[in-house]
Amino acid sequence: EISKLAQCSERTVYDVLRLHRDYGQVTNPFSRRGRPRVLDPVDIQYIHALFQTNPTLYLDELQEQLFAARDKD
């Protein structure tokens, strides 16, 4: 009856009830949105260390070093 009143499928009703039971809201707060990250935490740490040792690096130099050390474009 709820699905008819809400004009949605029974599956949607059960999904909403499960999300509310599990998270206290009707959306999953842990679901990822958007594009996957290109850089992982180790890459970020590497960039941070580069800037600490040489704060005057240009972006192209940073990219070259990141590619050479971590194989990331």
Automatic annotation (TrEMBL):
Entry superkingdom: Eukaryota
Entry-linked SUPFAM superfamilies: Homeodomain-like
The protein, known as: Paired domain-containing protein
Upper classification of the organism: Eukaryota, Fungi, Dikarya, Basidiomycota, Agaricomycotina
